[in-house]
Amino acid sequence: MLQVVEINAIEHLEAIRLRWTSLHYETTDASFFHTLDGLNVYWRHFRHGQRLRVLLVHRDGTIIGILPLVLRREMTETGPVDVLTYPTIMPSQFLGPIGPNPTATLMAALRYLARRSRDWDILSLGEIGEHDLGRTANALELAGLSPHETIRASIDKVCLDVSPTESISIPKPDAATARQGENPIGDLTFERIRPLGKSYDDYQNVGGIVDACGALKPRSSSCGHPVSLLRDVAAVASQLGMLDLNLLRLGNRLIAYSLNTHVDGAIQQISAGEISTTFPIHPTTVLTRWMMQDSILRKDRSIYFVGPNDVVATAWVTQRLSLVRYRHRASLPLRDRLTRFGRWLASPAMKG
User: Fold this and answer.
1) Angle, to 10 degrees, between the axis of helix 17-25 and the axis of helix 36-46?
2) Other CB atoms closer than 10 Å to residue 291's CB: what's the count?
3) Helices 102-115 & 135-142, crossing angle to 10 degrees?
4) Does residue 200 have a pLDDT over 70?
5) CB 216 within 8 A of CB 276
6) Which of the pair, 340 or 11, is modelled with greater confidence?
7) Has residue 83 got a pLDDT over 50?
8) Domain limits at 148?
9) Is the pTM of this model over 0.70?
10) What is the gyration radius of the CA atoms in the chain, in angstroms?
11) Among 3, 243, 310, 342, which is disulfide-ready with 238 (CB 3.0 to 4.6 Å)?
């Protein structure tokens, strides 16, 4: 019989660090944000106004799965609501159960939530179809929590173990630009920082480099994270051997970057940007193609880009994946709803 234990204090999770790490190794399609250190990064930057709810699923006294959740306030068309969801830093990020038994973990955790008094208005769980395989919707229904499906975002996945539809050549300036003496190709350099991690005594302090990256223009709104968050992600991922930082320079000048994490050959882009001034070639295009060429040599399996990426969509076998969010709205008594609304009106955020 499965039992569920709930942890609400981040420091209490240190007691199960070894078990969490072991389950992470056994998680299919695991990422940096499935690690306990990844959750710590999230909590350092987003904990204010949120409540941690990590559900540990036990069988015979052994943890077989973990479902990390947070309760946070979100604004909707009808006003503020308390949403119980995964601890994600951006709409295109995907998370899920940790461990080799995702279906059992999710079903046990959702049944636990269905039986408890609800401090949330909406339960919102997002995943991409190739990972979820209908698991979330089925678990919600079996727990008596009717799911409503919405598409939250789209991401592009490039499969690097499939031959490209065209050559991945590095773009060059047009002839008119070259005649004007503005050809920068000879001065372009590509650098990839991918340390093995603290366990191998191979990790790098990249804080200064990340600060320079943060000064560039984000490739999209989904890439526009605070520099302090990017610096923290890079530092922790470097120690874990999960950092993948790609840089494009013109001479000594940084003109584009892609900050990624990687686990078992699967790369997940966190942020990307380029210089905001006019340039003879598209820096992001050059960096992305250089990054893919290098990933092939390293035998990486795939790259998940933040949002749609037209640079790779025409040159590579790309899957445009929908991030599906399953939502269940709790039916709360009118008195409870009025009480919550009153607390929100009295909160420091509303007082200015």
Assistant:
1) 110
2) 25
3) 30
4) yes
5) yes
6) 11
7) yes
8) 2-153+323-351
9) yes
10) 22
11) 243
